[in-house]
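Intended use. Records like the one below are meant for learning the mapping from a protein sequence to its folded structure. Do not use them to infer anything beyond what is encoded.
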Amino acid sequence: MYSPTLVTLDLTENKVIPKKIIERQVVEAFLGGRGIAVYLAYETIPVDTSPRGSDNNIFFGTGALTGSIIPSSGTAIATFKSPHTNTLCTATSTGHFGAYLKHTGYDFFQIKGKAKSPQYIVIDEFADITLENASEIWLESVEKTDTILRQKYGQKSCVASIGKAAINQVMYTGVVVDRTHFFQRGGLGSVLASKNIKAIVLTDPPEPTNLPEFTEDELSLFKSILLNHPWSQLLHTQGTYSAIHQIIKYDSLPTKNCSRKLTLQSDQVSSFHGYGEAYDCWQCSVKCERNSYQNFVALGPNLKIIDHESIQAAIVKCDEEGLDPISTGAALASLFHIQEDKRKLLNIDLGFNWGESQIYSLIDDIIQKRELGDKLARGENYLYKQTSEPSPMIKGQMTGMFYYPNCPVLSMDLSSAPYGATHFKTGSLVYPEFLGYPFPLSPQSIKGKIKLKILFENLSAVLDSLILCPRFLPMFLTSDSILNKFPSRLRGVILQTMPIRLLSSILYNNSTVSPLINHFNSSNGSSTNILEIGNRITLLERLFNTRAGLSPSNDVFPRYLKGKSDFYKKQNELVTSYYKAKGLNPEGLVKLNTLKKSKLLGIIRI
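Structure written out for the chain above:
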């Protein structure tokens, strides 16, 4: 039976609070990973705390499968209150960090308080946790920090570190793991910097653990489904970038800060090809950690730049200092957008315009918080606030990279996300709308998609709690369901009329996710229970954020598009429908009856 442990490092007191086993009731309710971390954050982070305050605890988490022979099981999560959105945030890093942390004997690692001076954290081969003086590496880049710490603790150590941008409190900085993977969204880097922590070093390299709970046949089937799925093949050759041609096909490639769609000539479209070096993750041969669609479009087409070499160089620059490329691109696009469309309200002469790669010169200014870079470093929403102009940001954070009027339900999916439009936690409607998994649906269609949104967001929460790579979500959906036998124009009608529990039993792949829950949780792994566990996690995230002051206005797509009154009317209708289906009241608050049905009332403090 999976019995996860929690260890706490109190930075203020410079002491380790010995590990404890997490209560069985909590494990049954939330599985592990994101679920348990959200519970711990809900119970310990004061609702009115400043994201950069000493009482904003950070929870690094693993799951029951972490460090095992299962592909991608080195993935880890980090849950904290985001300075970017002022909401609870769970960032994900694929790679190896989770496997290293699990190997120490700690399933969850809480960092609380604030160190008196710059430090880094070491967890050694004996699972001893110490603070070490970081003054000599405090202002070094991620790459230099990684090099220095590996020279000291061994080349096989796992190093998670922050760069100068985080030290300078750039809002949208993450934590880079082993130079190649990234706790990217939400501003975790600036939170760690505010605690005077430069890096976390895990010195003891783990070996993959066996899973005696599974038969050889179960493991073989599970691996086969994950690694041989058509989506895995696309990820292997092109990464998530492989979606770009379908998104272009449906006129949904955005430009000018997602305010317009980008129209390209055929030779320009054919020039879009895979880019970047492939990096592996724990026990996974897919090697999709490259070629991110979101990063590429944010720093490329969204700025009306389509030159691959220039875009890739800008992404590498962001990675070197732990800048979130999505938010960096959005901050730069905000500058152009306000200059062009808002009658030069900022009174700044840039000297360059949309489509000109000279804009990338500002990335160094952002890292140093120098001159105009100081304004851009305060978040992609900052410039809009200075001009009182409508912003495209959702809960303070940039949306995923789409032209939204051409995909209305995906727009609502992202806008109603618990903590801003974090594409790994929501936005999964991109799979049926643009990639055809588990079956194709038109991006413009609406019928039945509210139920799909709920099913996908709940399944995503479960995968984040087991923990597996968030890109694997399509592999946990049945591709040969009865719905594939109907013409696409009828699928929406069927989805609309089908009860959500029946729909979950058809769509959730019982060959993959159900055995995982059966073996590690005394609850059964039925599609109904998967739906309930995921729902419980997402409801708890909403409870935290409504306590923090979020309202229905934060769930409605931002009104920055001109001449799109029909689109905005539909967005309001879709949010209302989602609230009803999710068991929320018209103000987006969780109903008492919903709390009772979810079984949260007996577990959490209200």
